[in-house]
Write a structure and sequence with these properties.
The chain has two domains: 105 residues, Nuclear Transport Factor 2, Chain: A (Roll); 142 residues, no CATH class. It has five helices and twelve strands. The longest helix is centred in the first third of the chain and has 20 residues. The radius of gyration is 28 Å and the shape is elongated. The chain starts with a helix and ends with a strand.
Amino acid sequence: MNKILKITISIIISLFFISCATDNLSISSLIQPKTANKQPVVSDNIFDMPRDAYKVVLAIGSKIIKKRGNYRDVVLQSPYQSNFKEAALFTFEKAVLISYSDNLNTNSKMLKADIYFIDSLKRKIAYTINANYLMKNSKIIVNNYTVSDKFLATNRSICFIVPADKYKNIFFQKKDVLESFYMLYEYAAKNAVTPNSNNLYNIEKNWAILVFFMNRMSKSATVQLGIGDNTNKYDLGYTKDSKYINFDGWRVATVVGKFQLLSRSSKKSLFAKAFFTPGKEYTKNILTKASDLVGLCKIK
C-alpha cells in the first residue's frame, strides 16, 4: 500500500514540475487579465448618477430637444442653440455618465455623459455632453458646456414595397412628402403592399422598394441597397440603380424594378439587402471596418 502511495505522490510531483517548466501553463496564463476600459462608465443609467450630475445632464438634454424641463435649480450660463430639426418628435431614452470629478475645495465639478433620444418610430439620436459647474447655495451653476454628435456603431432598417406609380407620384404631385423622414415614412407605410393585397402578387409589374435606416448617421458613413438572389452578408448584390435620400443624418435607400412580387411559382428568390458602413467615427482597427447587413427583405 505504501509503495502505491509513494508512486502516486511521485507522479503528482513530476507533473507539477513539468507544468512549471511549460511556457503555456502558468498561474498568469490561467487567470484571465482584466481588459482595460479606455473610457470607464461611471453610471450606465440616470438613476445611479449623483443627484447634481443627472440634473445637469437632463437640463442640457432638454435644451437639445427644445423642451422645457423643470430644472429651476440648474442655471446654464452659456447659451445653446440646437440645430435638431425634428427635436419635437423625440423624447429622452437614456443617459450614460462616462466621467465625473468633484473638487471639494472649490465646489466645482466636471462630467462627461452620453445622452440618447428616441421617437415613436424607434429612430435614435445621441449626443455627448461635457460640462463644468459649481454648487452654489441651492443652485447648480453650469459655467460652460459642450454638446457634440455621437453616432451609433450599428444601425437597423425597415423596408416597404410600394407600387412604382405611387412612388413616382412623390416627385410630381406629393412633393411635400419629401420634406422630412417622418413624412416619407408615413407615406410609404400607408401605400405599401400588405398580405391582404393578394391580387397584386399575381402579375409582373413595377415596384419601388424603400429602405429606411432608423439611426442617425454621420456624413462619412455610407449605406447601400442591393438586390440579390441570396442572403449572403458579404454579397452586396446589384446596387447600380439604387438612389439615396438624406434627411439630416437619417438615410433612405430606394430602387425601382419590375418583378412578380412574392411569386410562389418562382423557383428563384429575390432579396432587398440593406448595408451600413460607419464613417470616421469608427474607433476600432480600420482593418475590421466593413459593411454590415442591417436589413433583408424577401421580395420574390
